[in-house]
Specification:
Length: 386
């Protein structure tokens, strides 16, 4: 019996030794050493596309449309004829004005010759001075009638030319509001057709005036450096999320703040050779507004939040001790945050393996590899803006 008890005790002791877990070492973490680098400060803003030029074509004389000489929705060039208004009444008016001019010129010739004959007779006192003065006055009146008749001819010729309606700009036409046989009036409210130039094309976006003030303040204080070109570059994100291949230029910023929205309008111009962009499309514009030459970028995966919602990172300090720090983030740059306070260049930030690590814990750090960054999923705390 004593032997059996001893054997059981030995077995129990052996089992207890086998089930006791070995002591754990410091957790493995991947760290990234922060370094200052130039960071392009971009802003993404919603906006709409606007035609580069737009022309509402209206008739300048009254008449009946005889022909429409373009295809709706097609491309037209400046100076191309679009409509033909019945020219018959205007041709008749021109011929009448030309006849009146010829009559006035004949009268002017007669009065000129009469004044020339009366001049020597008046000097010889063969005719009275009054008769000579009347002849000279008739000559001047006839010359004035000639000038008036010439103006009437020019007006009639202009009205006849207006029966051909031309495109004032090159661009793409919309729907025609009239067909053959329609009666149109000079300077009517309804346009015959609207022409829009789409290459290049404008994109108008709005930005809060407070954001614009912060940007200008940062530029004035030297925190940001102005881009080399006075016209900042802009990129477009289309409605389906695709990136528009051509780069645009910021043209100007409105000088007046909208009192209702507290925002200012900015306009950029983009090349549009294939008419991919159509007027009225909703887009998002990405503007490069400055460069932070001493920027610190922290991967979004490295950020956590405390109970107060403050953004934090964990830094590996002396003796491989984990230290949690509260940081201030400015904006997202791709999959990283631009951090302005809380860390400095040279700090080693824990990027992966941060789960379960508390401030003061000893860790076993190694340099972060690109493969580890790609494999590590984003945490819910890193997904929301700090």
């Amino acid at each position: 019996m004593r032997i059996s008890v001893a054997v059981c005790a030995v077995v129990v002791a052996a089992c207890s030794r086998e089930t006791t877990p070995p002591p754990k070492g410091p957790p493995e973490v991947a760290v990234m050493t922060l370094a200052q680098q130039p960071v392009s400060i971009t802003t993404e803003l919603p906006g709409r596309t606007v035609p580069y030029r737009i022309a509402e074509v209206r008739p300048q004389v009254n008449g009946v449309i005889q022909k429409r000489l373009f295809v709706e929705g097609g491309q037209v060039t400046a100076g191309q004829q679009l409509y033909q208004i019945d020219p018959a009444p205007f041709q008749a008016s021109l011929e009448s004005a030309q006849a009146a001019l010829a009559r006035a010129q004949a009268t002017a010739t007669s009065t000129r010759l009469l004044a020339q004959r009366y001049k020597p007779l008046s000097e010889a006192r063969a005719v009275s001075q009054q008769d000579y003065d009347n002849a000279v006055a008739s000559q001047d009146q006839a010359l004035a009638d000639v000038a008036s008749a010439k103006a009437a001819v020019d007006t009639a010729r202009i009205n006849l030319a207006y029966t051909k309606v031309y495109a004032p700009i090159s661009g793409r036409t919309g729907r025609s509001s009239v067909t053959e046989g329609a009666l149109v009036a000079a300077n009517q409210t309804t346009a015959l057709v609207v022409i829009q130039q789409l290459d290049p094309i404008y994109v108008d976006v709005t930005q809060a005036s407070t954001v614009l003030l912060d940007l200008r303040r940062a530029l004035a204080q030297g925190k940001l450096k102005q881009t080399a070109d006075s016209q900042a570059e802009a990129k477009l994100i289309l409605e389906d999320g695709a990136i528009y291949e051509s780069t645009g230029k910021l043209q100007f910023t409105e000088v007046t703040v909208d009192s209702g929205t507290g925002s200012v309008t900015m306009r950029a111009v983009f090349p549009n050779p294939d008419n991919t962009l159509l007027p009225g499309m909703f887009v998002r514009e990405r503007l490069e507004q400055g460069i932070d030459e001493h920027g610190l970028l922290v991967p979004q995966r490295a950020l956590t939040h405390n109970q107060r919602g403050e953004a934090m990172v964990t830094v590996v300090g002396p003796d491989n001790k984990a230290i949690q720090r509260i940081v201030k983030t400015e904006r997202a740059i791709g999959d990283q945050w631009l951090v302005s306070e809380g860390v400095t260049a040279g700090d080693k930030i824990i990027v992966t393996g941060i789960q379960g690590v508390k401030s003061g814990d000893t860790v076993h750090p190694h340099a972060l590899t690109p493969g580890e960054l790609d494999q590590q999923p984003l945490t819910s705390s890193a997904l929301r803006k700090p």
